[in-house]
């Protein structure tokens, strides 16, 4: 049985309920300095705005971590990653939470990329007034957010890709990248036969069947342009495990082997982006601490 639009809508409702449950595991957010609803694109749209969770002042690292949330391209907002952000704020990092419109609203994944690119440019051009250090910046993303993080990092050094994506990337410079259970081969994922054509259009946008367009948006097709240190995490129960395996394989073959954190367990709680949605699970704590070590190793 294929998943159609109605099935995907039901799944999205279920995922939203899961988001509400994971908020129960967060720390008390009142103890953090948080700047909300920064109008990065100047149009007042909530899904174009960014938030910042500032690092513990007693343990300040002078590092900016920019996070792109996941959500299967059709749901979730930046506030759902607050718990994840506090893990790194406790370690002294200032965490910028980016956002983007849902595909069933904008009907084009390229729109999502364009919004995220403009937000990144805003962070770098307004770093001082935001109280951020623009010289020590890392990017991270999970699932669909990992896809966008990979693609945008590749675009920094790939002029042709920037032209295809219609982004300029003025002043954007990253020290490293960390992706958790990312989408890597966007062409393969968007062509899955498990989802009906209407369902694929709902998930991936109106050009869901345009191979050239999908290749332009696929990190796998531009992986040679990725030239900064990379951290990758996944687990045995990740339904996108093949995406991570292919990413690690390709980077290794290019002699750019990433720091790879893989949890090989059958525990159902350790599944897709577990370290983002269930931050207090022991294996999630381990993965996030490994990420902190990775970031810190390039900032001493």
pLDDT < 50 stretches? none
Q: Which structural class fits the helix and strand makeup?
A: alpha/beta
Strand order of the largest sheet: 1-2-4-3-5-6-7-8
Count the E strands. 8
Q: How would a textbook summarize the main sheet?
A: 8 strands, mixed
Mass-distribution shape? globular
Q: What is the count of helical runs?
A: 13
Q: What is the end-to-end distance?
A: 53 Å
Mean pLDDT: 91
Helix percentage range: 40-55%
Secondary-structure element string: HEEEHEHHHEHHEHHHEHEHH
Strand content: 5-15%
Rg (C-alpha, Å): 18 Å
Account of the 3D structure:
- By secondary structure, this protein is an alpha/beta fold.
- 42% of the residues lie in helices and 14% in strands.
- The chain has helices at 5-22, 82-90, 103-106, 109-125, 127-130, 144-157, 159-165, 186-190, 197-204, 211-216, 241-253, 274-277, 282-297; strands at 34-38, 50-53, 63-68, 93-98, 137-142, 176-180, 230-235, 259-263.
- An 8-stranded mixed beta sheet has the order 1-2-4-3-5-6-7-8, with helices on both faces.
- Helix 11 (241-253) links the parallel strand 7 and strand 8.
- Helix 1 (5-22) packs across helix 9 and helix 6 crosses helix 7.
- The longest helix is centred in the N-terminal third of the chain and has 18 residues, at 5-22.
- The termini are far apart.
- The mean pLDDT is 91.
Summarize the structure.
The protein is α/β, with parallel strands linked by helices. The protein has 13 helices and 8 strands.
């Amino acid at each position: 049985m294929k998943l159609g639009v109605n099935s995907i809508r039901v799944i999205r409702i279920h995922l939203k309920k899961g988001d509400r449950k994971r908020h129960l595991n967060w720390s008390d957010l009142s103890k953090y300095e948080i700047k909300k609803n920064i109008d990065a694109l100047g149009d007042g749209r909530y899904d174009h705005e960014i938030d910042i969770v500032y690092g513990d002042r007693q343990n300040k690292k002078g590092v900016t971590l920019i996070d792109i949330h996941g959500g299967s391209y059709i749901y979730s907002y930046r506030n759902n990653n607050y718990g994840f952000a506090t893990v790194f704020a406790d370690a002294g990092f200032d965490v910028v939470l980016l956002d983007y419109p849902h595909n069933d609203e904008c009907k084009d994944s390229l729109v999502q990329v364009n919004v995220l690119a403009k937000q990144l440019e805003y962070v770098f051009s307004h770093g001082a007034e935001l109280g951020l250090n623009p010289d020590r910046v890392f990017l991270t993303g999970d699932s669909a957010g990992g896809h966008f993080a990979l693609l945008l990092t590749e675009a920094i050094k790939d002029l042709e890709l920037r032209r295809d994506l219609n982004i300029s990337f003025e002043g954007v410079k990253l020290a490293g990248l960390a992706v958790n259970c990312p989408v890597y081969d966007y062409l393969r994922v968007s062509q899955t036969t498990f989802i009906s054509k209407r369902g694929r259009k709902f998930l991936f946008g109106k050009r869901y069947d345009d191979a050239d367009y999908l290749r332009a948006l696929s990190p796998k097709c531009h992986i040679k342009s990725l030239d900064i240190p990379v951290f990758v995490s996944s687990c045995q129960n990740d339904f996108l495990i093949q995406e991570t395996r292919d990413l690690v394989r390709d980077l290794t073959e290019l002699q750019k082997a990433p720091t790879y954190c893989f949890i090989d367990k059958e525990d159902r709680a350790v599944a897709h982006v577990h370290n983002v949605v269930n931050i207090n699970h022991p294996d999630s704590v381990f993965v996030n601490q490994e990420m902190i070590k990775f970031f810190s190793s390039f900032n001493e």
